[in-house]
Amino acid sequence: MRKAFCLALSAALLILACGMACAQDLDAPSVLNWMEQFAQALAAIPMQNDPSKTADPARPGEYLIEYEFGTVLSRSVSTPSAQDILEIDVRTSQVTDCRGMRVGMTLADVLAGEQVPAASTQLVVLGTQDSGTGWHWAYVGESGVYGLEWITYDMTDPAAVREYTLTYVIGQDGTLSAIRIRAADSTQAQAEAGLQTAQEIAGRQMGEVLAIANGQAMFSEQDLQIMDHQALGTPVDELVALLGEPVEVQELPAGGGRILLYEGAAIQLGLDEQTGVEIVLGITVSGTGLTGPRGVCVGMSVQEATALFRCDEDLYAAGGTLYMEGEARGEAPYGEMTAMQGSESALHYICSTASQGNACLDVGLLSGTVSYWHLYREGGQAEDDK
After folding, report:
1. For a tag site, which of 30, 99, 366, 377 has the least CB within 10 Å?
2. In angstroms, rounded to a whole number, what is the distance separating the alpha carbons of residues 140 and 72?
3. What is the pTM of this model?
């Protein structure tokens, strides 16, 4: 009878797992689907203990259920549903997991041909998830790989994000000795922070430094320039004398000032409230040939761009503080790199000025290259040149 139960469990879970046996990514829908089939299979497997007697006072409402294949931590004292399961610990080959793996398989089977690169750290990132948010990494000791972990997030409901972790314990003989699957409440911020950490570790492994620590001066009022000439707050006639006549002049509605359009650039103008003189409020450059603060220009590499201003620590991934003075993030003086979508990211610098409040410099990065730069006074931003 016990053998029949084990065969039923293995067969029920193998149906789903075969479709994922060669997959390296692990997405939340696949895990959820597997857990539902796992919970259904558990209905045919007898418990080997009384879960009501395994409640941990430190973790109220959680019960440890023992089975022949291992244990299940559940919110229910009866056969758990997929939603009740908090953790599964498999110690025998009776269970095929959501990647088609079973206890007893070799490290090569688990990696499905993937190699763990040599690294100076014990945590080696193997890849990030192609769709959704997730990653997988290896734990490496003196004797080699002793653990592998896949982490993925279900963010269907932003108010109820779930984290799923699949862990493989690799024995000294190089075979899979245990499988653990854990489900826990999380948040979108935690998922994004975890992914950023994984990307940063991966960047270090590849030696891809996006920003190298340096002792350059911070972005300041003296840097509000175009073509090595002061720009923000400059009277419009001085700028036109420098750049030449614009291709087009646009009037903004409701007395909002004017826009001077050049090839690959847009200059926003407004009136100085104290003098009544029309001055430059912002500059956006998306074409080549025009340099901005400290020579930043379109086409420059991210390493060249970040080397122009102070950077306190090496950054290996898009997202991180370049420098911060004072007490608050995002307040002048400040510098950061922000991650955007896909291969897009941006540098953002802010400084205070004596008469114009705060001034900002945004440098857009696409695939590691400057795609635009945008110099403006807070509250007076130039429109992108279309």
Report:
1. 366
2. 27
3. 0.59
